[in-house]
Amino acid sequence: MVQQYGDFQLEIYRAGTEGILPRYPVDFQTLEHRAAEMLPEWILSYVAGGCGNEYTQRANIAAFEKWGLIPRMFNGKYERDLSIELFGMHLPTPLFTVPIGVIGLCAQDFHGDLHVARAAARTGVPVVQSTLSTDPMEQLGPALGNTPGFFQLYTPKDRDLALSLIHRAEAAGYQALVVTLDTWVTGWRPRDLNRANFPQLRGYCLANYFTDENFLRRLAAKPEDDVSAAAAEWASQFGYSLSWEDLQWIREATSLPVVLKGINHPDDVRKAIDLGADCIYCSNHGGRQANGGLPALETLPDVVAAADGTPVLFDSGVRSGTDVVKALALGATAVGIGRSYAYALALGGEDGVVHHIRSILAEADLLMAIDGYPTIADLRSEGAIRRMN
Question: Is 356 a catalytic site residue?
Answer without folding.
Answer: no
